[in-house]
């Protein structure tokens, strides 16, 4: 999941090289992915169970996840859109296959005005699509957590995406994966992340022993509890390491929720 800029760049340019390969085909890609690989500790899932998930692409290459919050609006992490131009960014929806689905271009992208690319503060952005998502594909908006709404510590949430299956492997799965992780308290998260500041506009989810998590290029994707979007995959140290839970932008934080509502009307 975690936003590691060096690994993000390596992954992106590796994907760019593969994308430009004249020998690339679906069969060779499928053979290249070992069947046991998955979002760390998770399982393969179908798009019908996660119809709200989107793929954020730059120059037709998937770099991040996103969430459909309205038929013409996507929410994602600001670090996913910050370096791309509006002309380069498009969105894929309606498929559980990596880099497949209906492609829709972007009409506008807006990062949170307080977003800080040096430390990922206020890591949220919204993308307005150039057209509404068609009704005849498995792509539907999800409800958002209300401002100030609290999710109990220990509640289990689902995070999904097509990101790396571990932090040393550059191959991504072909199929959408999901894993369930418990919400942990700010104080516990801060205790485990002593070298990092856990701020009020994030939530943390994961296990003390690690083993289950999202990974690089799951960034921007959804953390969902009780059929509501409660978080956006933002950052962390490594993937599924002990005492290094996932850190998510909190949808319920007033400055995050107000930003989404003011821009998208959701």
UniProtKB/TrEMBL annotation:
Residues 1-21 form the signal peptide. GO terms for molecular function: serine-type endopeptidase activity. InterPro entries: Peptidase_S1 (IPR050430), Peptidase_S1_PA (IPR009003), Peptidase_S1_PA_chymotrypsin (IPR043504), Peptidase_S1A (IPR001314), Trypsin_dom (IPR001254), TRYPSIN_HIS (IPR018114). One of its GO terms (biological process) is proteolysis. CDD domains: Tryp_SPc (cd00190). Residues 39-265 form the Peptidase S1 domain. Keywords: Disulfide bond, Hydrolase, Protease, Serine protease, Signal, Zymogen. The keyword Hydrolase applies. Belongs to the peptidase S1 family. This is Trypsin-7-like. The lineage of its organism: Eukaryota, Metazoa, Ecdysozoa, Arthropoda, Hexapoda.
């Amino acid at each position: 999941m975690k936003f590691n800029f060096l690994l993000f760049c390596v992954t992106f340019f590796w994907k760019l090289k593969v994308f430009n390969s004249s020998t690339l085909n679906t069969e060779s890609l499928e053979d290249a992915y070992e069947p046991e690989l998955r979002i760390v500790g998770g399982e393969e899932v179908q798009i019908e169970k996660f119809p709200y998930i989107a793929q954020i692409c730059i120059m037709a290459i998937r770099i991040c996840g996103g969430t459909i919050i309205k038929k013409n609006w996507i929410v994602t992490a600001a670090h996913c859109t910050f370096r791309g131009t509006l002309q380069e960014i498009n969105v894929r929806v309606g498929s559980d296959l990596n880099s497949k689905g209906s492609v829709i271009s972007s009409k506008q992208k807006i990062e949170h005005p307080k977003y800080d690319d040096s430390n990922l503060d206020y890591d949220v952005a919204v993308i307005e699509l150039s057209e509404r998502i068609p009704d005849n594909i498995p792509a539907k908006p999800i409800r958002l957590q209300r401002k100030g709404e609290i999710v109990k510590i220990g509640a289990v949430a689902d995070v999904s995406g097509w990101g790396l299956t571990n932090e040393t492997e550059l191959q991504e799965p072909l199929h959408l994966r999901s894993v369930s992780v418990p919400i942990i308290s700010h104080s516990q998260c801060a205790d485990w992340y002593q070298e990092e500041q856990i701020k009020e506009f994030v939530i943390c989810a994961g296990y003390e022993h690690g083993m289950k998590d999202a990974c690089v290029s799951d960034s921007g994707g959804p953390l969902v509890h009780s059929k509501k979007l409660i978080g956006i995959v933002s950052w962390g140290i490594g993937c599924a390491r002990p005492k290094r839970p996932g850190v998510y932008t909190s949808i319920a934080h007033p400055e995050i929720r107000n930003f989404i509502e003011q821009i998208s009307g959701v």
